[in-house]
Specification:
single chain; 14% strand; Double Stranded RNA Binding Domain; 263 residues; alpha+beta; Ribonuclease iii, N-terminal Endonuclease Domain, Chain A; globular; four-stranded mixed sheet; 4 strands
Length: 263
């Protein structure tokens, strides 16, 4: 029994020792169960089938667990930090913190992206590749929970992620709902706003290509595996385009918002 405990604390394999040191560099503690972390950093594209029902040894189940941990800890943190703010404020701020874009940036900031294993040949699209890192961060939190328990996971989120890498006060005034802003602006100015949606295959992934047209003029395009994310990216680019080249007031329609999809 003692030998098993010592082995879990200090792996004998040189490769595992190096991996353990990398995990410690990120978390601040030496991991006890390396298998959890190995799976947390293994993308579906390089996973293997481990059960007759088709289940694979990818990080997707741990991602589910880590997502639950993250949302619970952030909700508790915001509830205590802002005792006089209403539910809408807290929900919106939490959404900004745990957004896919925010998690992708966090994963890169803590250098977790260097440890993620995935099929690079099938992940040439930058947006798809970056989303892998955010997903891996959630799975990583799931691994921390399984390895050290809720308090260890909570401590990592609060003292390693939020304390050093997330400016919560700045996020309060950071605009993230660009689609909503663009629609509101179009209605106010009597401009016709269209979101054209096209789906196309990209390896094993489905890619959403969004085009934003204002009064029939193309003002922003974006593509992503997540439709809502692609819409927000395209809307943001459209708003930036409008700032640089505002539409003529004489070329305005009654305010309309439409969404078309090519089949």
């Amino acid at each position: 029994m003692l030998r098993r405990i010592v082995t879990s604390i200090w792996p004998r394999n040189a490769k595992h020792r190096a991996f353990s040191a990398q995990i410690k560099h990120i978390t601040g503690f030496r991991p006890g169960n390396l298998v959890c972390y190995e799976q947390a950093l293994r993308h579906h594209s390089v996973s293997k089938t481990i059960h007759q029902n088709g289940s694979r040894d990818s990080n997707e189940r741990l991602e589910f667990l880590g997502d639950a941990m993250l949302n619970a800890v952030i909700a508790d943190y915001l509830f205590k930090k802002y005792p006089f703010q209403d539910e809408g404020f807290l929900t919106q701020l939490r959404s900004k913190i745990v957004s896919r874009e925010s998690l992708n940036e966090l994963a890169i900031k803590i250098q977790l992206n260097h440890l993620v294993t995935y099929d690079r040949r099938s992940m040439q699209n930058l947006n798809i590749r970056n989303s892998i890192f955010g997903n891996a961060l959630e799975a990583f939190l799931g691994a921390i929970y399984l390895d050290g328990g809720f308090e260890t996971c909570r401590d990592f989120i609060l003292n390693k992620l939020i304390r050093y890498h997330i400016d919560v006060d700045r996020l309060q005034v950071t605009e993230t709902n660009f689609k909503g802003r663009l629609i509101e602006q179009g209605q106010k100015n009597g401009q016709k706003v269209e979101f054209d949606v096209e789906e196309k295959p990209d390896g094993k992934q489905k890619l959403f290509v969004i085009k934003v047209l204002i009064n029939g003029d193309l003002k922003g395009t974006a593509e992503h595996t997540n439709k809502k994310k692609a819409e927000q990216m395209a809307a943001q680019r459209a708003m930036e385009s409008l700032l640089n080249n505002p539409l003529s007031a004489t070329n305005q329609h009654e305010g309309e918002i439409t969404e078309s999809q090519d089949n």
